[in-house]
Amino acid sequence: MSKTIAVIRGDGIGPEIMDATLRVIDELNTGLSYDFVDAGMAAQERCGELLPQATMDSIARHHVALKGPLTTPIGGGFSSLNVELRKRFDLYANVRPAITIPGTKARYEGIDLITVRENTEGAYGSEGQTLSEDGDTAHSQIKVTRRGSERIVRYAFELARRQGRKKVTVVHKANIMKTTSGLFLKVAREVAADFPEIQCNEMIVDNTCMQLVMNPQQFDIIVTTNLFGDIISDLCAGLVGGLGLAPGANIGTQAAIFEAVHGSAPDIAGKGIANPCALLLAACQMLGHLGMEDKAQRVRAAIRDVVARKDRVTPDLGGSGNTASFADALIDSLRAN
Ligand code: NAI
Ligand code: MG
């Protein structure tokens, strides 16, 4: 298969983990070529813009981007470059797998769940946020639409069907937030009826948090609105060992951007010790999206293999290796298996 993707190396540790990730991916004969474009501080330095048109054009042309973390400078005109990318490409589904890898600081074994978070509406809209003149009363509004709810829930069920997963848990607070969460739940029930082979569970968000901590293995796919999904997906990242292992995809109808959940880690940038796994796992999501799930599975197996043996992994996973030795070990494992 011949396909070009946009690649944004990113800021801070971004170039280090991107180079390691692409070295591993290049072992797989994916047929992928890369169109390297800039965003964030790297772009600001090179061409005076945080999100150059050439970068937007590349993502629009290739429909798929692999992206390193971006530093959003304070006062740069954007509240967040990531939010801006989500808006411009209407990336409505934030898909965050949380899978335990034995040998890490994960609190449980056998977690294999995916949070599907609505990414464009809910409580995170900028409209309707007001503060009274005396500064004592604040208002914000929550927007939930049938269209927004339907497309995210449908995405979650289709993902379950594609991956042979058995259960989707719809997380809500419809008992209290009767209109907004109520509409989301109502639409979710309608969509679930189209997927009779997949079990649909409903769970209130506060109980979900407790259940995740007590018995996370019961979950398969979770689908929920923006604010709940933001919180729950970080909780899940914590359950499986933290930021160095948490990937995420932002998916729309016209484009999809795959990235690590963590940021540019300025405290360790340039030291060559950043863990490349989160970005590599995001690249695995990308391979699945491009119809190469078999290759994604090979990389995940290599990660499990190398992490279990520990010696060549990065310090955050308890190893004495660095980014380059981690990538080398992954490549050795791919060649051996
Ligand atoms: P951060 O995620 O960059 O770092 C938090 C802590 O985790 C640091 O101690 C860091 O060293 C460690 N860490 C993160 N990734 C690691 C890795 N791969 N291997 C080993 N250790 C790792 O969060 P922080 O410090 O709040 O943000 C730094 C910058 O990143 C900010 O400018 C922020 O805006 C940006 N950011 C960008 C994101 C993106 O582009 N998706 C997401 C989050 C933050
Ligand atoms: Mg978040």
From TrEMBL:
<dbReference type="InterPro" id="IPR019818">
    <property type="entry name" value="IsoCit/isopropylmalate_DH_CS"/>
</dbReference>
<feature type="domain" description="Isopropylmalate dehydrogenase-like">
    <location>
        <begin position="4"/>
        <end position="330"/>
    </location>
</feature>
<dbReference type="InterPro" id="IPR024084">
    <property type="entry name" value="IsoPropMal-DH-like_dom"/>
</dbReference>
<protein>
    <submittedName>
        <fullName>Isocitrate dehydrogenase</fullName>
        <ecNumber>1.1.1.41</ecNumber>
    </submittedName>
</protein>
<dbReference type="GO" id="GO:0004449">
    <property type="term" value="F:isocitrate dehydrogenase (NAD+) activity"/>
</dbReference>
<comment type="similarity">
    <text>Belongs to the isocitrate and isopropylmalate dehydrogenases family.</text>
</comment>
<dbReference type="Pfam" id="PF00180">
    <property type="entry name" value="Iso_dh"/>
</dbReference>
<keyword id="KW-0560">Oxidoreductase</keyword>
